[in-house]
Amino acid sequence: MPSQKYGALVAPLPRRHANLLIQFRTNHVPLQTYLARIGKALGPTCPICGTEPETVHHYLLACPTYALHRAVHLIPLGFSGRNLATLLNSKDALRPLFAYINATGRLRTAVGALIGPGSGYPDSDGDGDNGG
How far, CA to CA in Å, does 41 sit from each of 30, 65, 95? Predict the structure, then answer.
């Protein structure tokens, strides 16, 4: 059973956002390292930059291909935007985190659009009604 703190963190999120967050926190997100571990990819190397294994840390904080997306979405968080534990555990980091994931397009085939019209994310439509 998840902790009360985690429950409070994901309570306002649509189910697929909460599922993706737990996948990131448990390293079971469909990135190359995990896919190679379960036999669904030939190797763990990042298919985007090809420089190192595509882990959660690499995808969110280190892949040079996504540097611009990090600058736009995560760096405005300050130190929190460079800290994996904070990105995955802070309510304030969730919207920028999902915006970053959405902007990279890396997981779009697996999870769809995460921010914007029709995403289900609270107030993504900009109409203030939190209805998606």
Answer: 10, 20, 30
pLDDT of residue 131: 42
Is the separation of the CB atoms in 113 and 106 below 8 Å? no
φ, ψ of residue 53 to 5 degrees: the values are -60, 140
Cβ neighbours of residue 42 closer than 8 Å, sequence gap 6 or more: 36
Coil, helix or strand at residue 124: coil
Q: Which residues of the chain have pLDDT under 70?
A: 1-2, 115-132
Contacts of 59 (CB under 8 A, 6+ apart): 29, 31, 46, 66, 104, 106
Predicted pLDDT at 129: 44
Handedness of CA 86, 77, 19, 122 (dihedral sign): positive
What is the identity of the amino acid at 70?
R
Q: Mark out the alpha helices in 11-107 (DSSP H runs).
A: 15-25, 32-37, 56-57, 67-73, 84-89, 91-104
